[in-house]
Amino acid sequence: MDRLSDLPDSIILHILSFVETKFSVRTCVLSRRWKCLWASVADLDLNASCSNIFWFKKFVRQVLARRNDIPLDKFTFHYPGMEKSLTDSVVDYAVSHGVKHLSFRSRSNRSTPMGFLNPVLCRSQSMTTLELSHFRRADLLEYLSP
After folding, report:
1. Quick one: 16 exposed, middle or buried, by C-beta within 10 A (0-12, 13-18, 19+)?
2. Is the overall model pTM greater than 0.85, yes or no?
3. Can you give the three-state secondary structure of 36-90, one letter per residue?
């Protein structure tokens, strides 16, 4: 048996919270003990960089469906566009799981409707940090102005 396997689940989950979700999910092949461990990590980091967009959307939906029903501490979502159905699913999931720190990065040069923020700003009672990166300033100002 290796030293890592000797660690308690809480320590392994803490370690897994520092890596992208796609890597923590891959640990499920290590042993029976690790098979569902990734689903209890309190942080999600879903990053579409270098990914096939179709595969990424499917992966996101599978992660959200298979993750254990535990609160989210941090949710990072990096996606080249802000496809409404996927973004709405991510925001609804984050809010319903009591996310504390939410980060969105768009990387899109096109105008992005900011309506996906409505559930976050109106319903979230646990969120302490909202980070928006690579959005067009004009879109943010338009959304925030009365």
Report:
1. buried
2. no
3. CHHHHCCEEEEECCCCCHHHHHHHHHHHHHHCCCCCCCEEEEECCCCCHHHHHHH
The one-digit pLDDT tens for each residue of the chain (146 residues) are 567 778 898 999 999 999 999 999 998 888 888 888 899 999 999 988 766 888 888 999 999 999 999 999 999 998 877 677 888 888 889 999 999 999 988 766 666 666 777 777 777 889 899 888 877 766 676 766 66
C-alpha of 33 from chain center: 24
The answer to whether the CB of 41 falls within 8 A of the CB of 73 is: no
Contact 77, 103 (CB under 8 A): yes
